[in-house]
Amino acid sequence: MKIQTALLVVLAAALAAPSSPRVSAGAGQDDPLDSPAKASSISSALSAVLAPAPSIRGGAPGMIVGRSVANDTSPALRDMDMEAATPKVRGGVSKNPKLPHAHVDMPDPVIQGPTPTRLGVPTPSMPNPILNFDGIVFPGVSCNCAPPDTVGEVGLTQYVQMVNNGFQIFNKATGASVLGPFSISSIWAGFGGVCESNGRGDPVVMYDQLADRWILTQFAGTVVPTDQCIAVSLTGDATGAYYRYDFNLGSNFFDYPHLGVWPDGYYMAMNVFNTAGTAFLGPQAFVFDRAKMLAGMPATFQTPGITGGPGEDTFLPADLDGYSLPPAGAPNSFVATPFSGAYKTRHFTVDWVTPANSSFTLFASPAAAGFTEVCPFTRNCIPQLAGTIAGNSGLDAIGDRLMYRLAYRNIGGV
After folding, report:
1. pLDDT over 70 for what percent of the chain?
2. Is the pTM of this model over 0.70?
3. How far, in Å, CA of 172 to CA of 398, rounded?
4. Local structure of 77: helix, strand or coil
């Protein structure tokens, strides 16, 4: 996962039901709205979703079914012998092949200029932060890499940050560190396989507010990333024990994993390349069995395979915000980068009992406003107010894809 920025895209017209909630891309994950009591009150409504699903055998037409290579339960992270921060010599840009795409730059009709003479500059109205504290310090944990793959998530009492190949857990009220920084691979200590010995970063941390659980992930592989390593906490304490999983996705180069929480699964998008990383094969959607993983059972995933081929724009899965559930049975929406001139929105409908009923289909293609691609030929092109820092004249940006997350919130059913 690369640098997280805020590219806001409102997509109310491209959702699941006639009373569709709104979807926006690139918004940062915020505190769970509504009270924890509300989460408890919906537990009965979620019982059918969280009940262990029957075992799935074999594949299904149009839908590939895979199984966890291995799974177990870790000791509490706070009791494990974790790999401490060991900064290395500054590295170059992490392997992240550029995505081929065709786009014609156009003026953005709503861009705000630097002076009030160009469409006006609004008066800042954002309140001051409640708390400000240092996260993982430069140069990171186990990897002094660029881009830094910075991502963070907030729960009821804790904040978890992942940078490069490391993670750290903070007290949300005070900002004090309660665990770390340690290497992400340390989470899989004693697990074996590539998750323990060949973790490659691109981390994602999610807080499943419906179950009060943490999800810590990274990809792994001996030569190129072929596996997704997912750890699901047993409780709402991120320093506690985890159900650990290794999912082998295939033999290709599976890059840029981004995930979203949904009532019936943990959904993920991947950008798939050949094993040499020299040819883009297309985007690919996945869904992991959330119910099984919350129970620590062997789990399966489903995928329609590569979508559209190398000419297809990459996409992101929706990630649920708040405690208001989407409409009953609503599919997860995957929204594509609009280089084609539209936000192609696909619906992933999953049936864990009968995979033949699962589908991944184009639902709508709302038009995109004109825009100019940022940093088409380089990374560190975003000017910094402080000038050059640590040898970089600008901040990293990856303009050939949407930035994480695709935030979904049900606001009164609209």
Report:
1. 75
2. yes
3. 30
4. helix
